[in-house]
Specification:
This protein is of the alpha/beta class and 299 residues long. It contains 10 helices and 10 strands. Bound molecules: 3'-deoxy-guanosine-5'-triphosphate (GH3) and magnesium ion (3 copies).
Length: 299
């Protein structure tokens, strides 16, 4: 799959309409088709979709209901929707925008115009994605930043809550990093941060696991559907990766090599808690790891 190529989902109960739209778009985009709202929801949950072209009149779940559901779920609320319908009254169109659609195309629109409008929206989506990627990336290390982490935590928390699933978190802090900066200089410090970020990220084997720079010399990892034992294995891999880097710390007089301390927390989200509880628990583990001598993890 070409990662630059965008994906459009056509949702229409009429085979003819699906085929017509598909023929207009398949040269430039990946095109998925669904014949019902329910099928569309399944496809949207299973893969990234850049744009949904949504028919309104459908049996079972109509297009408006699907749009309502997408916009009310934090996991899917950013999916862009364009209604494509035979309903051409001003009121229908205004209702479509009120539901959160970014455009409304009536089915009597010339095919070339449909194509042009879809292209225009997808171009804007591409630019939005670029900006989002930029604003979610830590400038020094190139890994996701705190903003990205906070958003992801919100989404994965909802997801785990709904599925009654476990969520694990690691809070990682470089040991004696102030001494490192004082002994080797700030530039070397930055270089060390980049290497440690790479070692943390390389320890994650599942694409759903997220690592981010949480603060100055702190990193955080979020792992959905992961029990404590799985989180421990990742913490061990992170420490092994950092050991292998063999970054000298001798000049500081407090340690031979750069090491990290890790706090581990696992919980099953509950409506009574806020996602911050998970981080608070990991932070408590980190605090204990520091107190017990550093270069270790504590649950
Ligand atoms: P501990 O083992 O208890 O964690 O000790 P520490 O020295 O690592 O902890 P402390 O919080 O006192 O120091 C963190 C240091 O991280 C201080 C700060 O100068 C450094 N730091 C934070 N952000 C950056 C950065 O972007 N680049 C560099 N070079 N240093 C940074
Ligand atoms: Mg229809
Ligand atoms: Mg710190
Ligand atoms: Mg530190």
């Amino acid at each position: 799959m070409d990662p630059e190529k965008q994906t459009v989902l056509i949702v229409d109960d009429m085979k003819f309409s699906r085929h017509l739209l598909k023929s207009l778009l398949e040269d430039d985009y990946y095109v998925l088709c669904a014949s019902s709202g329910r099928q569309a929801l399944e496809l949207i949950m299973a893969q990234p979709v850049d744009l949904v072209l949504l028919d309104i009149i459908m049996p079972d779940m109509d297009g408006r209901e699907l749009c309502r559901q997408l916009k009310s779920d934090p996991v899917t609320q950013d999916v862009a929707v364009i209604f494509i319908s035979v309903k051409d009254e001003t009121e229908d169109q205004m209702q479509g925008f009120a539901l959160g659609a970014i455009d409304y195309i009536t089915k009597n629109t010339a095919p070339a115009v449909v194509q042009a409008r879809v292209r225009c929206h997808l171009e804007l989506k591409k630019q939005r994605d670029r900006l989002a990627k930029w604003s979610f990336t830590d400038a020094l290390t190139g890994i996701p930043n705190r903003r990205y982490f906070d958003e992801t935590l919100g989404k994965l928390w909802c997801y785990a809550l709904r599925n009654q699933d476990l969520l694990s978190c690691l809070l990682i802090d470089i040991d004696f990093f102030k001494n490192y900066n004082d002994s080797y200089g700030h530039m070397e410090g930055d270089h060390c941060l980049k290497k440690v970020a790479g070692a943390v990220q390389a320890a994650l084997l599942r694409p759903i696991d997220t690592a981010a720079r949480y603060g100055g010399e702190e990193f955080i990892v979020l792992m959905p559907s992961t029990p404590c034992a799985g989180a421990v294995r990742v913490a061990e891999r992170i420490q092994a990766n950092i050991r292998e880097l063999r970054i000298e710390h001798r000049l500081s007089g407090v340690s031979n090599l750069v090491t990290v301390s890790i706090g581990i927390a696992t919980l099953k989200p509950d409506r009574r808690y806020d996602p911050a509880v998970l981080i608070k628990r990991a932070d408590f583990g980190l605090y204990k790891a520091k107190n017990e001598g550093r270069n270790r993890f504590v649950i």
